[in-house]
Please model this.
Amino acid sequence: MLIKHGINSGFGAIYTLASSPVLRRQQFLIRSLGDYSDQNTNTHQKRMQGIKFTSGASLEADAENVLRAITPTLDPNRHKGQAGKIAVIGGCREYTGAPYFAAISALKIGADLSHVFCTKDAASVIKSYSPELIVHPVLEESYGVRDDEKRVISGKILAEVAKWMERFDCLVVGPGLGRDPFLLDCVSKIIKLARQSNVPIVIDGDGLFLVTNSLDLISGYPLAVLTPNVNEYKHLVQKVLSCEVNDEEAHEQLLSLAKRIGGVTILRKGKSDFISDGETVKSVSIYGSPRRCGGQGDILSGSVAVFLSWARHAIRDGDSSFSSKNPATLGCIAGSALMRKAASLAFENKKRSTLTTDIIEYLGRSLEDICPVR
Ligand SMILES: NC(=O)C1=CN([C@@H]2O[C@H](COP(=O)(O)OP(=O)(O)OC[C@H]3O[C@@H](n4cnc5c(N)ncnc54)[C@H](O)[C@@H]3O)[C@@H](O)[C@H]2O)[C@@H](O)CC1
Ligand SMILES: Nc1ncnc2c1ncn2[C@@H]1O[C@H](COP(=O)(O)OP(=O)(O)OP(=O)(O)O)[C@@H](O)[C@H]1O
Ligand SMILES: [Mg+2]
Model:
């Protein structure tokens, strides 16, 4: 049986056999969508029907239409939590900014609740940045734990996170996590738990250090998104493909990388962002900012988490042709586009003194410009 995909994949209209791996994975995604009561089904259907991924043979995603299609309307019948509950696993003695940037970005875009699971040292600092965040001081680094206590403490940490897991629409693992071996071992268990619970996971920063060295954690999980920067991408390519980054064949290499990790979605950050799930490659090249201050990747990971969650719901509520799309790819396209637009607005205003906190202040307006609240 031949089935026409509802959305152009970027390589012309695609027809595929019902038994293809793409379709099987997409059907798995549909099956794996959780319960979500949405009053706006028809609105979503209309918006999703409007998505066109690319024009012609270009790889450039039609990011604004993706944003419009997946962003839920603000409906007075909805209750707290329905617009998204995100958890960031990150924050240690050294890094408190990164988890804050990711978690606050999720709220500024429109998620209802944003949690941070971090070490005890980091917790009060992160709380002091914002009363909006729900901060759990549960993680431990090796220096605070005796060897004979490790097994018990690791069990307690997992139990603490497990209490919450089913409530989350997406985890962001890695911003400001650090590289302490005991802490990373506990985070491996958290990733396994999220996977068992079918919760999508965005892996960034030190989370990429962890999974690059333990690929089994995410391999073959279609709800995993990796967001490597230039260094992290280099390590991933070396480890997985046993070669160096090849910019002459950048798209093919990204495709093979995503395919070799079992169809996870990879967002390769750079001058243009490239996104692949091992089947297609899309790019987002809209103008951003020439400022490269630290923390912009953290905004991106928090944003992708929200949009991925919204895309899952929009796909579930859309018509049959759209319910076969990959929410991870949609989430990456939307997150990348919004981050770059906000960065460009912040730079217009602040020029060389633009900081990550300035960019965060433009997330709301950037989304509003594309997808106004009605
Ligand atoms: N204000 C803050 O708290 C900020 C904290 N950040 C955090 O800082 C930490 C480091 O991020 P950076 O952006 O500085 O990282 P970099 O991209 O600078 O990488 C740090 C170092 O680790 C190496 N590396 C990366 N992946 C590796 C792998 N798989 N195996 C071995 N070596 C690897 C790189 O070669 C580099 O030397 C992350 O947790 C990140 O989230 C950043 O997000 C920036 C802002
Ligand atoms: N040369 C560039 N021109 C325009 N935008 C860029 C450029 N490089 C990166 N970006 C954008 O900046 C964002 C963050 O990418 P970056 O490579 O700085 O991540 P990072 O190093 O992980 O950041 P962080 O400091 O948060 O860890 C991405 O959304 C990407 O689109
Ligand atoms: Mg980073």
In short: The chain is about 45% helix and 10% strand.
